[in-house]
């Protein structure tokens, strides 16, 4: 401490350091309050001078999102990678999974064998040139990782995916056809590649393939052929189908029709593999239904904490609040059937509404879905992969919707209808008998749970309501319900029908005999 007769002054200089001096000059101290401050300021100044910062207004916008907590918390294991960690969101977060880095490096070596006169360092430098374009694809700009780390990440992950896509071709992938690769689960890798938080920009894959084949015009067809042959049919419209044999391929000029579809979509521009898979499904289900949807995004509201309400979502009739996470099972507690939802399949059958498989090639919500008391729906396959894949597709569409309100939510609206129609295993049984749901999962209770959990916080409004309104008008017709009940109770068994006809004939004969006797 300074003497009482001396005056001590404390100053903070422009470099963020504290300088203490005593008036008589006997003491001086120098203290760096924040050793990181200078480095951070220097980086900011350097970035500003070089203009190497991201302007969202001039970028293409975010396309690879973090799954919102309100969706992810319902079943986080459906969104986190299990075997292969790709991209910056999960990079080296789980040490036990970094064994995949060995496979990634092998994939890089195999890729470089197909690119003449290029080293891995040169490939990384080419990716570094795309740094700002890569960062613009991610919500937080991937700021956790520096330029070099991000570039290496993209190279390793991109080569890994491309090498994996060669797996189905004979002698094309030594990495995934070796005996050691039997230790990894290929199907889990496919699912990891298609998880929203595990995506890398599609232009990285295109760039690497272009370096391999040295023909930019052939890149879409090259990728389409390998994606079409990927196990599980994830780029063939899975899990939806409009035909009995969904794996039957139409071949024209030596190229199957689905490969042509994928190549056209790639030429039109896709963000990543999950986006491409979603576009294939959109082409399958709603190619003729463009412009027939007008959604409203979910809204929030202030809740009364005293009543214990913790979640609010928007519905077409206002804002509804629930305890805990919202589900459409909660919305159905009301006995009133309005235009925002439709009754379960069992109730619709009771009202005489039939469920049939759509076989017309397109699933048009505006014209073809409900007519003459029949609801036409595409076939959906439910197996071990369906829930994970659909959850990531729905999450992607919801995140997209926040960025661009014009985006059509093809998957979400299908799941919304199925969530409304399925309440119990009896409803699943009706869909199975109508060949609309192909159940390879096991119990029908589990299938019902999957559909009921998929559409948390999703609401719709617009031309999509035409179906709901038409179905509900038919359902709410009391005469229709009476006729249906009568048929179910009295006409479901042959002996009941025979007895009823006999009773009517006997009644008529008795009436005629009475009239004849009175006139005589």
What does this protein structure show overall?
The chain is mostly helical and 520 residues long. It folds into four domains: 8-50, no CATH class; 69-286, no CATH class; 305-476, no CATH class; 481-519. The protein is 46% helix and 9% strand. It has helices at residues 35-50, 69-72, 100-113, 120-128, 131-135, 147-165, 174-177, 186-193, 202-213, 219-228, 257-268, 273-286, 328-331, 345-350, 386-403, 410-421, 425-433, 444-454, 465-475, 478-490, 494-519, and strands at 8-12, 17-22, 28-32, 240-241, 251-252, 255-256, 311-315, 318-322, 354-357, 370-371, 374-377, 379-382, 437-439. A three-stranded antiparallel β-sheet has the order 1-2-3, with no helix packed on it. It has a three-stranded mixed β-sheet with strand order 4-12-13. The protein has a three-stranded mixed β-sheet with strand order 9-11-10. Helix 16 (410-421) packs across helix 18 (444-454). The chain is elongated, with a radius of gyration of 31 Å. It starts with 7 loop residues before the first strand and ends with a helix. Mean pLDDT is 74; it is low at 10-20, 25-35 and 288-338.
């Amino acid at each position: 401490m300074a003497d009482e007769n001396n005056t001590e002054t404390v100053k903070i200089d422009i470099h963020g350091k504290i300088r203490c001096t005593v008036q008589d000059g006997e003491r001086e101290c120098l203290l760096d309050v924040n050793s990181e401050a200078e480095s951070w300021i220097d980086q900011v100044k350097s970035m500003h001078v070089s203009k190497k910062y991201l302007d969202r207004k001039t970028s293409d916008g975010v396309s690879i999102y973090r799954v919102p907590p309100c969706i992810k918390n319902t079943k986080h294991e459906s969104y986190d990678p299990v075997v292969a960690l790709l991209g910056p969101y999960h990079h080296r977060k789980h040490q036990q999974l970094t064994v995949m880095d060995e496979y990634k490096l092998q994939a890089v070596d195999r890729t470089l064998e197909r690119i003449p006169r290029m080293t891995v360092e040169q490939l990384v430098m080419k990716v570094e040139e795309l740094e700002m374009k890569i960062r613009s694809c991610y919500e937080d700009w991937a700021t956790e990782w520096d330029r070099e780390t991000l570039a290496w990440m993209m190279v390793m992950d991109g080569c890994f995916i491309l090498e994996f896509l060669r797996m189905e071709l004979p002698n094309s992938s030594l990495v995934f056809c070796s005996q050691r690769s039997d230790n990894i689960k290929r199907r889990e890798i496919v699912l990891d590649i298609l998880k929203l938080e595990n995506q890398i920009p599609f232009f990285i894959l295109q760039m690497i393939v272009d370096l391999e084949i040295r023909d930019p015009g052939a890149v879409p067809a090259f990728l389409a052929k390998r994606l079409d042959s990927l196990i599980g049919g994830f780029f063939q419209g899975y899990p939806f189908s409009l035909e009995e044999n969904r794996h039957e391929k139409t071949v024209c000029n030596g190229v199957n029709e689905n490969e042509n579809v994928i190549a056209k979509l790639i030429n039109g521009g896709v963000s990543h593999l999950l986006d491409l898979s979603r576009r294939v499904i959109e082409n399958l289900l709603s190619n003729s239904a463009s412009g027939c949807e007008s959604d409203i995004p979910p809204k929030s509201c202030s809740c009364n904490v005293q009543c214990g309400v913790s979640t609010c979502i928007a519905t077409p009739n206002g804002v509804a609040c629930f305890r805990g996470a919202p589900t459409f099972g909660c919305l159905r507690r009301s006995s009133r059937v309005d235009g925002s939802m439709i009754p379960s399949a069992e109730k619709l059958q009771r009202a005489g509404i039939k469920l049939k498989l759509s076989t017309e090639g397109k699933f048009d919500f505006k014209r073809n879905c409900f007519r003459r008391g029949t609801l036409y729906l595409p076939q959906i396959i439910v197996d071990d992969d369906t829930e994970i894949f659909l959850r990531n597709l729905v999450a992607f569409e919801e995140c997209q919707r926040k960025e661009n309100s014009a985006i059509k939510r093809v998957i979400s609206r299908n799941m919304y209808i199925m969530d409304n129609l399925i309440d119990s295993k009896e409803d699943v049984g009706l869909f199975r008998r109508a060949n609309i749901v192909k159940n390879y999962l096991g119990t029908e209770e589990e299938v019902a749970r999957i559909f009921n959990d998929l559409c948390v916080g999703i609401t719709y409004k617009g031309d999509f309501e035409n179906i709901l309104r038409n179905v509900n008008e038919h359902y709410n017709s009391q005469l229709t319900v009476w006729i249906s009940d009568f048929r179910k109770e009295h006409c479901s068994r042959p002996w009941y029908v025979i007895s009823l006809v006999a009773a009517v004939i006997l009644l008529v004969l008795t009436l005629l005999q009475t009239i004849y006797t009175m006139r005589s």
